[in-house]
Specification:
Largest sheet: 2 strands, antiparallel
Family: Belongs to the sideroflexin family.
Main location: mitochondrion
GO molecular function: monoatomic ion transmembrane transporter activity
Helix content: 55-70%
Number of helices: 12
Shape: globular
Strand content: 5-15%
Membrane topology: Multi-pass membrane protein
InterPro entries: Mtc (IPR004686)
Distance between the termini: 36 Å
Mean pLDDT: 84
Structural class: mainly alpha
Radius of gyration: 22 Å
Order of helices and strands: HHHHHHHHEEHHHEHE
Low-confidence stretches: none
Number of strands: 4
Strand order of the largest sheet: 1-2
Length: about 325
């Protein structure tokens, strides 16, 4: 079989104009098994993608399916704008194994102050890596800004978690177990905008359908960062809501934890992993990664520039990040 030419691998295989297609795309990109891909496999995938784009022959790729397999492996490890290989725990394919461990531990040890401090710190450390790794474009970020964001997000999460723990200490049932979710939501609202502060200051590049770049827009950056923050909160909700409900049921209706007290944490971690396997891609798919914005919604100078250079362009696009 001959590899067909003319396939646009700069765009996802499935058109991203519907939620179902975006979900199919992210189910592949966030596949936890991609974490175990070897450096050799990743470099081979990068070579295949670059060779195909350059029109060079690829003798070891015989079909379109093989080409897309290489492209998705490439997308799981390399930044879409800069082409740089992302650090392992910052990749979207690492979300499930990392989050299932941290989230399960946060919900298991939510009543212990030292444990709350440790696991909220671990969660914000991980979030800082993810947010930095998946920022939009080649946005530079200073060490000072990185540390400011990290410290403020961690502080916000700790204040929320410890404060709500105190308010909920006399409560029973599911409600006290939802405290970690409130802390995670509060921290995301701080961490993501601060980690991407350069985009809020300088904007993100906007392009038309043909790929022509017109400049950078702060308005587009604001919309993109708000969408990412919401999707991250939505991503955390299923695991951090359904898991406490399951544990509450097992505590009240069964003797499992009385007979096997050690089973509490593994059950929460494994159940979180199961939920996150689906919640991560489904919530990434809520908003398109290549987001659109009306030209009329842009800053006046950029809007006038686009209308002067390309009067027919009514909508431009930008990478909102993940």
């Amino acid at each position: 079989m001959t590899l067909p030419t003319g396939i646009n691998i700069d765009e996802p295989r499935y058109p991203q104009n519907t939620y179902v297609n975006r979900a199919k795309h992210f189910l592949i990109v966030t596949n936890p098994l991609n974490v175990f891909a070897s450096e050799e496999s990743l470099n081979k995938a990068a070579r295949i993608v670059k060779d195909y784009k350059a029109g060079r022959p690829i003798p070891d790729v015989k079909s379109e399916d093989e080409l897309w397999k290489a492209k998705y492996l490439y997308d799981s490890a390399f930044h879409p704008d800069t082409g740089e290989k992302m650090m392992l725990i910052g990749r979207m394919s690492a979300q499930v194994p990392m989050n299932m461990t941290i989230t399960g531990a946060m919900m298991t040890f939510y009543r212990s102050t030292p444990a709350v401090i440790f696991w909220q710190w671990a969660n914000q450390s991980f979030n800082a890596v993810v947010n930095y790794t998946n920022r939009s474009g080649a946005s530079p970020i200073s060490t000072e800004q990185l540390m400011t964001s990290y410290c403020m997000a961690t502080s916000g999460a700790l204040v929320t978690a410890l404060g709500l723990n105190r308010l909920a200490k006399n409560l029973t049932g599911v409600l006290p177990k939802l405290v970690p979710l409130a802390a995670v939501a509060a921290a995301n609202c701080v961490n993501i905008p601060l980690m991407r502060l350069q985009e809020l200051k300088n904007g993100v590049p906007v392009i038309d359908e043909s790929g022509k770049e017109y400049g950078s827009s702060v308005t587009a950056a604001q919309q993109g960062i708000a969408a990412v923050t919401l999707s991250r909160i939505f991503m955390a909700c299923p695991g951090m809501v359904f898991t406490p409900v399951l544990v509450n049921y097992l505590e009240k209706k069964t003797t499992l934890f009385k007979r096997f007290p050690w089973a509490n944490s593994p059950i929460q971690i494994l159940f979180c992993g199961f939920v996150l396997t689906f919640a991560t891609p489904l919530c990434c798919a809520i908003f398109t990664q290549k987001a659109s914005i009306s030209v009329d919604s842009l800053e006046d100078d950029l809007k006038q520039k686009i209308k002067k250079e390309s009067p027919s362009v009514k909508t431009v696009y930008y990478n909102k990040g993940l």
